[in-house]
Amino acid sequence: MQTTVNPRASTETFLAEAAELLGPKGFTxxxxxxxxxxxxWRGRYTGRALAxxxxxxxxxxxxxxxxxxxxxxxxVPQGGNSGMAGGATxxxxxxxxxxxxxxxxxxRSLDPTAGQAVCDAGVILQTFHEAAEEAGMRFPLTLGGKxxxxxxxxxxxxxxxxxVLQHGTMRAQVLGIEAVLADGSVFDQLTVLKKDNRGFDLxxxxxxxxxxxxxxxxxxxxxxxxxxxxxTAWVGLSAITDARTLxxxxxxxxxxxxxGFEVIPAHCLDSVLAHLPDARSPLAQKHEWNALIxxxxxxxxDAALRERLENALADAAADGLLSDAVIAANERQAEDFWxxxxxxxAGERALGPAMQHDISVPVEKMPxxxxxxxxxxxxAHPGTTAVAFGHLGDGNVHFHVLAPKGSVPGQWEENEGKxxxxxxxxxxxxxxxxxxAEHGIGQMKIGELGRLGDxxxxxxxxxxxxxxxxxxxxxxxxxxxxxxx
Length: 485
Fold this sequence. Notes:
This protein is an alpha+beta fold. The chain has 4 domains: 7-100, Uridine Diphospho-n-acetylenolpyruvylglucosamine Reductase, domain 2 (2-Layer Sandwich); 107-225, Uridine Diphospho-n-acetylenolpyruvylglucosamine Reductase, domain 3 (2-Layer Sandwich), CATH 3.30.465.10; 229-345, Alpha-Beta Plaits (2-Layer Sandwich), CATH 3.30.70.2190; 352-440, Alpha-Beta Plaits. 38% of the residues lie in helices and 20% in strands. Strands 5-6-10-8-9 form a 5-stranded antiparallel sheet. Strands 1-2-4-3 form a 4-stranded mixed sheet. The longest helix is centred in the N-terminal third of the chain and has 20 residues, at 7-26.
């Protein structure tokens, strides 16, 4: 005799057991409590969640995941909800729970001598920066959303930022990891070993997996000594190709001191100046392109480092590579320069709808890609404006395509905007690049990854997903494209 399972009864049993497990602080089905977390921060994706779970420990995460597995309840992990690809937003079915790691916000240990710290997944990046600074150290990864981004989210998306040129992505900062797998078991590899040749480096599999293979609950992170000297320059340029040449010149002149090299076109700077009432351009004249250069050293003094950078810029100016430049006189001015850079997305967003593309191509090809892709997209989609800005030093720019004036938000993105993105990703693929440099795939790019990704690589991803999450309960509909019939 075959037994019939009542899905509704199973769900109700799950809700009761989860509420008992986590208590009122850790579990809610109240719509008012859940609703703010059902939409991504950009307002592009909105779903419905069965409940919001906020465990306070790895043990509670483990117990909850076992419960979800027993009742076939999908799980959408969420950190600061500051992702750019809809990777932490549930679908519209209302069957999945949101699993928030925000209550797990302890820095378990911070050892300046060893140069490492162990953080819970819910620790906010800015909080971690401040803790490291108090200990005379620093964590060498930062980004515009540092006030809301969490360690778990940064690990799960292999976040980048403005210091990748010297220090690498989040993957390079993670020395150890703790994660709860799909069956509720705990993968504990927080202990750091310089040498460990016992097979696959499994922590690397979890980094960048966007919660589809396991739920990151803690990480051991690399710390570096705090720099003693800093030199920050804003440079005016006439061409993006000159920016690449200048990058190579500064790299040779400054060596390991060069930490960031960002490019900002005039359009982006204008949008920021219009968006920030008290902001002003660092240079008196307008330039087609601007470069923001950051150099730091552990040893030495500010004055000596600024002199080195000034000499390098003077040599470049003598060769006609730049039109004008200013070196920040103090920390406040340096931070003002970076505020202009970090406000580009907000400034562009204030202009109206746009399709944002986080792409990479080889560093040596990036200027030519920008010069080829910009007119190609604008010609194919009359009235649009394409702008590229960001991390030229590591071959990653944010290629934004602004909608024609008067376009209706929401409608344009869903119609012409999708065709715009398809063209951009086709061009990136043709140039040997990646459709996601640092923001992840999430739900935004899963279709394009399935369309453009290498079939062998996609098959491997599906095999890993099936092995580690056979029921498909971990962040369904994200990162891993389904097999095509």
